[in-house]
């Protein structure tokens, strides 16, 4: 799991204001309108007082009456308009946060995402950003508006009676003390609740990500229990947060009630003693009555803000993770197609300090063009070699060079634009076949696309599908066979006209005919492109220009099939297991296939 919260970043409040800043205009406008609505509210008791004075004194009351009605209407209209503006701003703040977060998430380094839970990342982009909605806008507005309205009420109350004001202030101070004592608890419980929701997302994503495996193993209940446990944890933390927030709410209500009763008692006594006019007591009580709103607003804003700040810390936690610097100034496609040389200079890799060496002192030189195969036992480090070329990881020592230049010095987008990479499990994304094939080359010309589809033998599949290339393939290409997914991944890589083609077991799910066809494609491509292919089935690599035998992270031998059968015991063993050293068992991969044009 990732570090849950930001540890080194800006203070969460400063960070929260950073999300608000681009939308400060809307928020300010909304706040001003709400404030004006509050002022209109605030003025009403004074007008009620003059109305009572006019009625009891027999003076004209039409004017105060009209003024009161106008104030009432103004407070409602302006207040609602202000609230609408604040809500609009809230949506914009969430959109800004989501855009920033998603842009960051997709640029995270592979090694970082390897150690993260996708479900947790997802919950940060969805749930935590939603938490910002209230925190960045209505909570802040509530806080400011609450403070201003209370200050205004206090000033006006002071004009009515200082003794009663002292009573009210004492009660308010007590309430402030209680609220401040509760805030750290609310914040911690809020943080833990959001962390637990992230945990629940992680468990659920794991279960849904291996849905068929879960079903095939009859593990539905076990997985459901794990999700339930995480949900229960989220519920427990949420309940804790709710308990503290409710307590703050109760304290607020109680404080207002107590102030009301005490003011009524003390004020009544002062009226009886002739020290206070009835109209002043009524006006004071009305202020107290109105004060309930701003006080609740202030406490609610303050406690609500805590959940938002917890979310900010989780969102900022992503910003602190290592991300790639993707310079988008990609070279023209013509340059990308030029074959590249690949050099590994004394490359060693450990995924973490003190961890096992995945690769050790690897030295390799691949010339531009030609097919190089990597073979070796499972876990030897074959996929990791390809990952270093793509810069998914950086070597712990040594360096990987493309065209004689350290891959760390290449603008990342340019480096990857030169490479076509077919992953081991050939992932296909939800969407159409066209989306999948053109994922890395959105502007590929139609004739080139048609040619690639032809070469990867996808045309019969397209003819069968109802909407051809525009057929939806389902989540992770669920409606396709493993071999079809693999051919789509190969088409995707070839469409980019790469200068270097990396193939990680591209034939593992292909039948013999398609495997042979792929062999022909690879042979043709390798005449104009550098091809590096990981293979378990030696039948696919016997005609490679060179074969690298990798074992436990070390290069044991490099040579042609014939060289290695003679000179490398490990290779001979692999070949013998696959019956390749016997006569007549090799699948012939044509090196001079005339029917396939160079790609
Ligand atoms: N992100 C990672 N963190 C730690 N160890 C890893 C990571 N990725 C791979 N490994 C380990 O590195 C070793 C080499 O893995 P790699 O996938 O490169 O092997 P491989 O030769 O391609 O295996 P296979 O033929 O089974 O695909 C394995 O022992 C694997 O467990």
Automatic annotation (TrEMBL):
<dbReference type="InterPro" id="IPR003439">
    <property type="entry name" value="ABC_transporter-like_ATP-bd"/>
</dbReference>
<feature type="transmembrane region" description="Helical">
    <location>
        <begin position="162"/>
        <end position="183"/>
    </location>
</feature>
<keyword id="KW-0547">Nucleotide-binding</keyword>
<dbReference type="InterPro" id="IPR036640">
    <property type="entry name" value="ABC1_TM_sf"/>
</dbReference>
<keyword id="KW-0067">ATP-binding</keyword>
<feature type="transmembrane region" description="Helical">
    <location>
        <begin position="64"/>
        <end position="86"/>
    </location>
</feature>
<feature type="domain" description="ABC transmembrane type-1">
    <location>
        <begin position="28"/>
        <end position="307"/>
    </location>
</feature>
<dbReference type="InterPro" id="IPR039421">
    <property type="entry name" value="Type_1_exporter"/>
</dbReference>
<dbReference type="InterPro" id="IPR027417">
    <property type="entry name" value="P-loop_NTPase"/>
</dbReference>
<dbReference type="Pfam" id="PF00005">
    <property type="entry name" value="ABC_tran"/>
</dbReference>
<keyword id="KW-0472">Membrane</keyword>
<dbReference type="InterPro" id="IPR017871">
    <property type="entry name" value="ABC_transporter-like_CS"/>
</dbReference>
<dbReference type="InterPro" id="IPR011527">
    <property type="entry name" value="ABC1_TM_dom"/>
</dbReference>
<protein>
    <submittedName>
        <fullName>ABC transporter ATP-binding protein</fullName>
    </submittedName>
</protein>
<dbReference type="Pfam" id="PF00664">
    <property type="entry name" value="ABC_membrane"/>
</dbReference>
<keyword id="KW-0812">Transmembrane</keyword>
<dbReference type="InterPro" id="IPR003593">
    <property type="entry name" value="AAA+_ATPase"/>
</dbReference>
<feature type="transmembrane region" description="Helical">
    <location>
        <begin position="244"/>
        <end position="265"/>
    </location>
</feature>
<feature type="transmembrane region" description="Helical">
    <location>
        <begin position="271"/>
        <end position="290"/>
    </location>
</feature>
<keyword id="KW-1133">Transmembrane helix</keyword>
<dbReference type="GO" id="GO:0005524">
    <property type="term" value="F:ATP binding"/>
</dbReference>
<feature type="domain" description="ABC transporter">
    <location>
        <begin position="342"/>
        <end position="577"/>
    </location>
</feature>
<feature type="transmembrane region" description="Helical">
    <location>
        <begin position="24"/>
        <end position="43"/>
    </location>
</feature>
């Amino acid at each position: 799991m990732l570090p849950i919260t930001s540890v080194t970043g800006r203070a969460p409040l400063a960070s929260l204001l950073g999300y608000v800043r681009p939308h400060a205009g809307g928020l300010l406008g909304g706040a001003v309108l709400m404030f004006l609505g509050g002022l209109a509210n605030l003025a009403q008791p004074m007008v009620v007082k003059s109305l009572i004075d006019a009625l009891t004194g027999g003076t004209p009351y039409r004017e105060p009456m009209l003024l009161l009605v106008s104030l009432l209407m103004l407070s409602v209209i302006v207040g609602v308009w202000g609230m609408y503006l604040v809500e609009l701003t809230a949506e914009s703040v969430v959109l800004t946060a989501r855009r920033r977060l998603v842009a960051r998430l997709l640029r995270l380094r592979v090694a970082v995402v390897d150690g993260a839970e996708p479900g947790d990342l997802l919950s940060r982009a969805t749930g935590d950003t939603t938490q910002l909605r209230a925190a960045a806008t209505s909570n802040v507005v509530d806080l400011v508006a609450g403070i201003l309205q209370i200050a205004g009420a206090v000033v006006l109350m002071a004009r009515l009676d200082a003794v009663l004001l002292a009573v009210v202030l004492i009660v308010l101070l007590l309430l402030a003390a209680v609220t401040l004592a509760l805030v750290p608890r609310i914040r911690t419980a809020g943080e833990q609740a959001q962390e637990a929701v992230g945990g629940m997302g992680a468990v659920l994503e794991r279960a849904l990500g291996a849905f068929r495996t879960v079903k095939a193993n009859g593990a539905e209940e076990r997985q459901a229990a794990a999700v339930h446990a995480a949900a229960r944890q989220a519920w427990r933390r949420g309940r804790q947060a709710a308990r503290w927030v409710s307590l703050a709410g109760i304290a607020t209500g109680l404080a207002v009630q107590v102030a009301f009763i005490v003011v009524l008692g003390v004020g009544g006594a002062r009226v009886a003693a002739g020290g206070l006019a009835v109209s002043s007591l009524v006006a004071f009580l009305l202020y107290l009555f109105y004060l309930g709103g701003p006080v609740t607003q202030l406490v609610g804003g303050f406690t609500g803000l805590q959940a938002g700040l917890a979310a900010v810390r989780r969102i900022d936690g992503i910003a602190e993770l290592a991300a790639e610097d993707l310079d988008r100034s990609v070279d023209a496609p013509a340059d990308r197609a030029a074959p590249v040389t690949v050099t590994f200079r004394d490359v060693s890799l450990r995924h973490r300090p003190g961890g096992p060496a995945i690769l050790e002192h690897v030295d390799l030189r691949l010339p531009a063009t030609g097919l190089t195969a990597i073979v070796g036992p499972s876990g030897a480090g074959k996929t990791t070699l390809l990952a270093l070329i793509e810069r998914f990881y950086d070597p712990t020592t040594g360096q990987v060079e493309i065209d004689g230049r350290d891959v760390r010095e290449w603008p990342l987008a340019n480096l990857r634009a030169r490479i076509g990479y077919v992953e081991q499990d050939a992932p296909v994304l939800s969407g159409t076949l066209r989306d999948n094939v053109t994922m890395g080359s959105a502007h590929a010309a139609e004739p080139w696309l048609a040619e690639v589809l032809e070469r990867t033998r996808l045309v019969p599949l397209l003819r069968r599908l109802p909407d051809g290339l525009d057929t939806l393939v389902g989540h992770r290409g669920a409606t396709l066979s493993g071999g079809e997914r693999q051919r789509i991944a190969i088409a995707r890589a070839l469409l980019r006209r790469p200068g270097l083609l990396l193939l990680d077991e591209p034939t593992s799910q292909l039948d013999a005919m398609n495997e042979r066809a792929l062999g022909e494609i690879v042979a043709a491509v390798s005449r104009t492109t550098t091809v590096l292919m990981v293979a378990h089935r030696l039948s696919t690599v016997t005609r490679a220009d060179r074969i690298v035998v990798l074992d436990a992270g070390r290069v044991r031998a490099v040579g042609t099939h014939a060289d290695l059968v003679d000179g490398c015991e490990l290779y001979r063993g692999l070949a013998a297991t696959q019956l390749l050293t016997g006569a007549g068992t090799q699948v012939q991969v044509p090196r001079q296939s005339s029917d396939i044009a160079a790609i």
